[in-house]
């Protein structure tokens, strides 16, 4: 942000809540670029506001960001509905602190963000503020400029919808990390037998190339099909990059263990994983649309509340 080096009290107040504002916007929008734009727009509104009338900066800024994010979500809805192939959220690099908090990590996981895509903008904003940030119904009603009754209704609908599509279970973070490392090694070595041990019987691979790069336009489903797909990775040329030129790194993406693939001069794709109660991989999200890899390419790690 283009702010003077000597920050005044208003800038300090904004900076104090900046991480929170990005966290709210990213979960509502599912893209880091849009979330950053919304935070920037919130800064402009904050700068222009009569702050002597603002009793609670946190509530005021959350209201601005929630409404800007809902507005942007409505304007991008058609674009997402006409997207080539599956639309996946834009991945972000996260730090170990985000991964250590199970509830926080789950709330920013690809799997949950994909489910949130199916909610209306209001339901999504209400769900994020209530379930992730534990705002009261009264605070949310003020933030999204609706009645408390309307907010309760939206929260109930959103919660039921999410629970039906995303069953919750206790995730063993160490087990997830171990399975990801073994999957990584088996993919590199073309070890189909190990891959089949690590994948759930009804595993689903979602690939997002956005029409910019070649990817499967429909989900790839089933243990053997997905295992063969990854066993062949180490021997196949991908986007014109020979296997010997491709680098892969295990890292933290969206609160969980993931993989970043890089060519000689750019990030090529990311993989993130969802796990079943037995700790096997139940879903793989592969983002290869270059427009969605800027947040990973710039290397910024987000410690999200």
Describe what this molecule looks like in 3D.
Pfam families: Sigma70_r2 (PF04542), Sigma70_r4_2 (PF08281), SnoaL_2 (PF12680). Residues 110-161 form the RNA polymerase sigma factor 70 region 4 type domain. Residues 181-280 form the SnoaL-like domain. This protein is of the alpha/beta class. Among the domains are: 7-82, Rna Polymerase Sigma Factor, Chain: A, CATH 1.10.1740; 173-298, Nuclear Transport Factor 2, Chain: A, CATH 3.10.450.50. Helices cover 51% and strands 15% of the residues. It contains 13 helices and eight strands. The strands form two sheets. Strands 3-2-7-6-5-4 form a six-stranded mixed beta sheet. Strand 4 and strand 5 (256-262) form a beta hairpin. Helix 2 (32-48) packs across helix 3 and helix 11 (192-198) packs across helix 12. The longest helix has 25 residues, at 57-81. The chain is globular. The model has no long low-confidence stretch (mean pLDDT 90).
């Amino acid at each position: 942000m283009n702010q003077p080096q000597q920050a005044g009290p208003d800038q300090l107040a904004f900076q104090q809540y900046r991480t929170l504002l990005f966290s709210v916007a990213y979960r509502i929008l599912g893209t880091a670029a849009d979330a950053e734009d919304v935070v920037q727009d919130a800064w402009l509104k904050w700068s222009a506001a009569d702050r002597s009338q603002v009793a609670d900066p946190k509530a005021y800024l959350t209201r601005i960001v929630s409404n800007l994010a809902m507005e942007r979500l409505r304007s991008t809805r058609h674009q997402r509905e006409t997207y080539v192939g599956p639309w996946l959220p834009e991945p972000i690099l996260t730090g170990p602190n985000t991964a250590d908090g199970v509830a926080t990590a789950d709330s920013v996981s690809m799997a949950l963000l994909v489910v949130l895509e199916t909610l209306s903008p209001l339901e999504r904003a209400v769900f994020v503020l209530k379930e992730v940030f534990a705002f009261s119904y009264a605070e949310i009603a003020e933030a999204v400029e609706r009645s408390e009754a309307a907010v309760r209704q939206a929260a109930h609908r959103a919660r039921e919808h999410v629970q039906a599509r995303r069953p919750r279970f206790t995730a063993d973070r160490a087990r997830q990390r171990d399975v990801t490392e073994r999957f990584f090694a088996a993919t590199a070595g073309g070890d189909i037998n190990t891959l089949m041990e690590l994948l759930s019987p009804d595993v689903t691979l979602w690939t997002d190339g956005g029409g910019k790069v070649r990817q499967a336009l429909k989900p790839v489903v089933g243990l053997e099909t997905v295992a063969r797909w990854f066993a062949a990775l180490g021997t196949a040329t991908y986007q014109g990059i020979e296997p010997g030129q491709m680098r892969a790194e295990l890292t933290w993406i969206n609160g969980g263990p993931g993989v970043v693939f890089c060519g000689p001069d750019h990030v090529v794709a990311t993989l993130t994983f969802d796990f079943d109660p037995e700790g096997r991989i139940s879903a793989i999200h592969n983002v290869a649309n270059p427009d969605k890899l800027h947040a990973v390419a710039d290397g910024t790690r987000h410690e999200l509340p």
